[in-house]
Please model this.
Amino acid sequence: MSEGPAGHGDSRPEDSASAPDAANSGHVNDFDTYQLYQRGLDLLGRGSAAAAAQLLQRAATAEPHSRSVLEALARAQFDAGQYVAAAGNFRRIVDVSPSDDYAQFGLGLSLARTGDHGEAAEHLALAAAMRPNLRHYTDALRSVRATLRARDDIDQENAD
Model:
């Protein structure tokens, strides 16, 4: 978890208002979803990202529009090395809430890990612009831009 979105000191405290609301619904299925979500967060916090991703995927299937479930799932997928899946779930959050700096950051990191440094730089730049005081956002952006420059330099050398 040291390099993933949750490992940069900006993992969000879970907001019970945005988590699956088992207490108010009275549905057993909602309660089960909430339990899956809580167990998934616990596993993620303990460093068992792959197991967390499995539970959180079940919760996301039951609550596909829950931002907190999608974010937790994307974090778990990233930490488990499932970068394409993580990017997809971070993108779902960004599509609904483009001003979510953390989702932009997670999407950027995930895209960088899939090798799409160009698009990664765009999302990391947005996250860094929204929260310039978060060093891990600017560090990630700087790293991706350095990779892009190095690739351009290699392309120029090969063209000469």
